[in-house]
Amino acid sequence: MNFAGAVAYLVGGSSGIGLAAARELASRGAHVVIIARETKRLDQALGSLSSLRVSPDQHCSAVSMDVSRWHEVAACMRDTVAATGAPDVLINCAGRACPGRFEEIDMERAEETLKINLMGCIHIARALVPCMKEKGGIIVNTSSVAGLVGVFGYTDYCASKYGVIGFSEALRSELKPWGIKVQVLCPPDTDTPGYAAENLTKPRETKMISSAAKIMTPEQVALALIKGMASDRFLIIPGLESRMIYLAKRVFPSLVEWVMDRQIRQCQNEMGDGR
Q1: I want to staple 10 with a disulfide (CB 3.0 to 4.6 A). Which of 6, 22, 60, 127 is the partner?
Q2: Is 143 a catalytic residue?
Q3: Which one is catalytic: 9, 161, 168, 242?
Q4: In CATH terms, is domain 7-202+216-242 a member of 3.40.50.720?
């Protein structure tokens, strides 16, 4: 797929998968706009993109905003489109996870997770779809393997990521007549700053479930994303292990549940907390 000259908006583009995808697109000639909340990270990320440009006419820019606030998103995106043009490619990577046992989760924190992970995608799409209809394009919303399989300790996160898939599937059918392709990226555990923070609050059961899983790099996920965008697949699932989990959940859901329940019981028995 040729991205030369395309306008690409990367929401959550200041770090992790979003930044890795922005770097890939910049190196392929796209005009890249990275969007995130923290100005300092944005400035650092923008500096790393400038050296990847393949043409003196290629532009890279950064926009600071909070995706969870609708009126802020609407105003920022209106100004950004006026300055850079409507996106040909929109990739929503903004997200967060704060794992913990359900009864111990702070409800304000859970609401914030839903606002960022799910409503953030909805806000961005709502602000940009009208202008994208004029020329078509691609929208990729980021879910997770935890949007395909419920994971112990990630109740609010799973709710948000399952929601992203449902939202995207409905949006896909609405936008298809306008030449806008909608896809969902479902990465596994990925070595990002956010993943490191998650490990600080993960329940022991969650750590056991994920201990055998292969961790991907943001660059590996970004390459899978770029490759997936050239296909007609709705779900882009990086990594063979993740695709096998997805297939097993679809074909043998009871088996997947049994394996996960067995791991949880084993961990709880070791802690003297079996039920």
Answers
A1: 22
A2: yes
A3: 161
A4: yes
